[in-house]
Design brief:
Number of helices: 1
Structural class: mainly beta
Length: about 400
């Protein structure tokens, strides 16, 4: 063997023996991203290995951040509180593009064709739309209600047909932005829906958009299959006649719980979930819970709903059985349980425990803890399976 050939063989052996790197050939279906809110970073995780792969840093203020994924699951779009919009290559573990698009933002969505990324803003309000490849802005939609004042926007979701739905917090309106045709979007406005809508979401079939009200007891329903679109109040005065409790944290409708014919919604400032029949959106029951619910997330398959709570009872999770409509398991993962994410088929639940600096992983059948991952003040957990779901 010549000296040159010997050197080539040694080099090849060294490459094959190198440790796994983020850019090594791999699929994306078992990947996820965990927000580290205290350090402005994210962890890219491997769900199957229950392990962190790499950390991406310098992403700004992630104190209230969310993520959507490109259809091919290669890129994660991170929406930061400071108006930052970051496109991360989760295979390479690098920032592909980043910009500050506003002064204060609250979340985002990606169109059903994966070509448009929309961001919901507090400052200056309204919604801004960006090209998913380049992050060049393609539309700026101010949100001015009937009073002419700029409004914060919340509850931004994608809808089938290259559309986005969102709610004007200050103006009390729901808007639908339609990008199906070239040129400026067509905006449909539904005014006078109620006081201070705080969040909104769409059912997994893309048919029903619901917005929760903070300024009064009630929820607003829009059947997106009906023409013309109409906002209808449901659960009007659901807390009527009872003393209002202080609200320690606004509940999130993201991750709500449609299970079979029932939909479980966190009640604002109350220690209970409200159950609706999704066929007619009539209340069919209430489920007492340990504290004020923040997220009520259905396990894939629909049998159980996992619920976490606002401060000071945020160390606990309730598991609700959808058949009996009762809490069947209650446990305490640790201080400040902020988010829960199920594996795509629901065999495990990943739970972020902020003040323990841990993501804990539970068996959803036995409720036993299987593993945990170190993370810096973790909050939102997002798996790439969301890329195939409406409203995720």
């Amino acid at each position: 063997m010549t000296c040159r050939l010997r050197y080539a063989v040694l080099f090849l052996c060294a490459v094959l023996a190198a440790p796994l790197a983020a850019d090594e050939l791999r699929g994306t279906g078992s990947l996820g991203v965990v927000i580290e809110r205290g350090t402005g970073s994210v962890l890219i995780v491997d769900i199957s290995r229950r392990a962190a792969i790499t950390r991406v840093e310098s992403l700004g203020d992630l104190s209230h951040a969310s993520i959507v994924f490109s259809p091919d699951q290669r890129y994660a779009y991170v929406f930061g509180r400071d108006g930052g919009l970051t496109k991360i290559d989760i295979l390479l573990g690098t920032v592909a593009k980043r910009l500050i698009q506003a002064g204060n933002a609250i979340g985002g969505a990606i169109s059903d064709d994966g070509r448009l990324v929309a961001v919901s803003n507090y400052d200056p309000g309204g919604v801004r739309i960006f090209d998913a490849d380049t992050l060049d802005m393609v539309a700026d939609i101010p949100a001015r209600g009937a009073d002419g004042k700029a409004s914060k926007t919340v509850g931004l979701v994608d809808l089938p047909g290259r559309r986005f739905a969102y709610t004007l917090y200050d103006a009390g309106e729901i808007w639908i932005a339609d990008f199906a045709a070239p040129g400026a979007p067509r905006i449909t406005k539904l005014p006078n829906i109620g006081k201070l809508p705080y969040d909104g979401n769409v059912t997994p079939d893309g048919r029903h958009y619901l917005a929760g009200l903070f300024g009064e007891d009630g929820v607003v329903h829009v059947d997106l299959w009906q023409e013309p679109l109409k906002a209808v109040r449901i659960l009007d005065g659901y807390g009527r006649g009872e003393e209002k409790l202080p609200v320690y944290k606004m509940p999130h409708l993201e991750g709500w719980a449609p299970a079979g014919d029932r939909l479980l919604i966190p009640a604002v400032g109350r220690h209970e979930l409200i159950a609706l029949d999704v066929r007619d959106f009539r209340e069919v029951g209430r489920i007492p819970t340990y504290g004020q619910p923040v997220f009520a997330v259905v396990r894939p398959g629909g049998r159980h709903v996992w619920v976490n709570f606002a401060h000071p009872l945020n160390d606990t999770i309730d598991v609700v059985d959808i058949m009996t409509m009762k809490v069947v398991h209650r446990f305490k993962p640790g201080p400040a349980v902020l988010h829960m994410e199920f594996t795509p088929r629901g065999h495990e639940a990943w739970v972020s425990v902020r003040d323990a600096n841990r993501v804990q992983i539970y068996d959803t059948t036995t409720f036993a803890k299987k593993a945990e991952i170190e993370a810096k003040m973790p909050s939102g957990i997002f798996f790439t399976a969301r890329s195939a779901k409406i409203g995720q």
